[in-house]
User: Which sequence fits this backbone?
């Protein structure tokens, strides 16, 4: 088993792909935390804790849920909105949850507006600008999510969660697989369940992303 | 992708940046008679661009994007150059190829789209500079035409390598001295429109982008002919005002000066016989449609 752990960065300019360091993807019904395979329930609990601890917990919905390609995508979008609303209800004063879209993958040039969107080719800009210390990717195609997660791990101290509809992401600090409406709703339930039991890190050195 | 797919999920509509909301609300995807006159009254398919102030290439982009007959089902293939700085802000599917192999990529793409979406119209349009089309990519350009690949090739001809500082290109005019070509061009401008005609293109136009209505017409013709018959080629003069020592406001005049009857960008058009027949059929259909619409309007009144 690999000794490498997928931890919040900044790791360095070009962090290795976690897969190349021996990190494996979870099997159905499992997830991973920092590269260690765990049960899905443990991952829900940890993801909810991370959200409730963060100063700026943020959800980044990608094109697969932002655009209503089909009924399933629209339902997932509703579930994402529910998770965000739950998060807003459950955080304490001083914590500011955000919902920032990744509408497409164009390497927008010369710049993006980090207040209103995130771009997979320079996700660190949005994270730095909003001082995001915990984020979740959902509805982002895997190859773009991998790219972004590595850049985030390389240049920021943001904790990354991937709610992946496929086999999960080694490069996230916590990754679910086979994302569905039910799984998003279950995460929202866990956030509600842990409300008030987690101390937010409002003043610690960890708060805010490194730049 | 068809225009029905271009919908934002209702639950997340409010967080989408306004340019995406505008694209869904008021862009002219799916509008049959879309054209340059929509500019100003609907959302353009180009958000902002990073070209120099007054660059004629930006005018060309706006007119072309406003004139594509089927933007929601069009894929554009670009190449390295000033155009590649614009494509990230364009709301039409596009692929950035390696320098020069844009026509090879477009060939494969067009064939793959025909297999993947049989019975559905999918247009492929190559848009590259003169370096990619005529110098480094000439092999791929010509081979695609020889094979009668059904897509349109547009060359933005600024007569040199502009964004690397002004090196000599095959389309530079004889005797021209550029910043990085101090000796002056020793041979004539390559006559690519004639070569295109001899290589099997069914529609070839050589002109400037000074007149939006003309660009609309040639783009529509080129795309329709490529869709039904075979390769088409447009060579559009988009002068690099910086490299020829002009000011921002002088691009349009430069194009007007270069399209005079004796100049190198005087309007030249070649249409093959099958293409002429197709254009006549399209014109007849258009006329019928307009007459029917007129009749319907008079009945309603």
Assistant:
């Amino acid at each position: 088993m690999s000794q490498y752990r997928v931890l919040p960065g900044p790791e360095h300019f070009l962090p290795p792909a976690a897969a190349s360091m021996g990190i494996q993807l979870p099997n159905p019904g499992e997830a991973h935390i920092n590269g260690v395979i765990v049960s899905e329930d443990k991952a829900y609990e940890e993801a909810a804790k991370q959200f409730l601890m963060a100063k700026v917990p943020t959800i980044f919905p990608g094109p697969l849920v932002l655009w209503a390609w089909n009924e399933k995508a629209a339902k997932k979008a509703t579930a994402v909105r529910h998770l965000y609303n739950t998060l807003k209800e459950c955080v304490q004063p001083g914590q500011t949850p955000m919902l920032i879209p990744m509408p497409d993958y164009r390497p927008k040039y010369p710049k993006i507006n980090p207040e209103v969107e995130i771009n997979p080719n320079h996700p660190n800009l949005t994270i730095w600008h909003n001082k995001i210390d915990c984020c979740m990717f959902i509805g982002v195609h895997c190859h773009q999510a991998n790219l972004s997660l590595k850049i985030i791990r390389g240049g920021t101290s943001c904790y990354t969660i991937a709610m992946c509809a496929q086999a999960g992401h080694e490069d996230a600090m916590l990754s679910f697989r086979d994302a569905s409406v039910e799984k998003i709703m279950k995460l929202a339930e866990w956030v509600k369940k842990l409300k008030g039991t987690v101390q937010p890190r409002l003043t610690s050195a960890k708060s805010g992303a490194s730049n | 992708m068809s225009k029905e797919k271009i919908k934002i999920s209702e639950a997340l509509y409010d967080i989408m940046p306004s340019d995406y909301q505008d694209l869904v609300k008021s862009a002219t995807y799916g509008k049959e008679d879309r054209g340059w006159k929509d500019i100003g009254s609907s959302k353009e398919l180009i958000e902002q661009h990073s070209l120099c102030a007054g660059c004629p290439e930006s005018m060309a982009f706006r007119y072309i994007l406003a004139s594509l007959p089927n933007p929601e089902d069009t894929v554009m293939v670009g190449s390295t150059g000033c155009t590649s700085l614009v494509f990230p802000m364009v709301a039409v599917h596009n692929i950035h190829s390696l320098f020069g192999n844009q026509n090879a990529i477009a060939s494969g793409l067009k064939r793959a789209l025909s297999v993947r979406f049989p019975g559905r119209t999918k247009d492929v349009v190559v848009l590259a500079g003169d370096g990619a089309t005529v110098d480094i990519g000439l092999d791929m350009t010509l081979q695609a035409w020889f094979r009668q690949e059904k897509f349109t090739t547009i060359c933005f001809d600024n007569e040199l390598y502009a964004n690397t500082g002004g090196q000599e290109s095959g389309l530079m005019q004889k005797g021209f001295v550029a910043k990085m070509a101090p000796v002056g061009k020793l041979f004539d401008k390559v006559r690519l429109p004639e070569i295109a005609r001899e290589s099997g293109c069914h529609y070839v136009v050589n002109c400037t982008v000074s007149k939006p209505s003309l660009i609309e017409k040639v783009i529509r013709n080129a795309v329709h002919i490529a869709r039904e018959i075979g390769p088409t080629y447009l060579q559009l003069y988009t002068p690099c005002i910086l490299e020829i020592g002009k000011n921002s406001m002088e691009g349009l005049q430069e194009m007007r000066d270069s399209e005079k009857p004796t100049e190198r960008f005087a309007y030249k058009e070649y249409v093959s016989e099958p293409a002429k027949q197709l254009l006549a059929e399209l014109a007849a259909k258009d006329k019928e449609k307009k007459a029917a619409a007129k009749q319907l309007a008079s009945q309603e009144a």
Residues 204-211 of chain A have pLDDT under 50 and may be disordered. Chain A touches chain B at residues 61, 65-69, 73-74, 77-78, 80-81, 99-101, 103, 106-110, 113, 116-117 (CB under 8 Å).
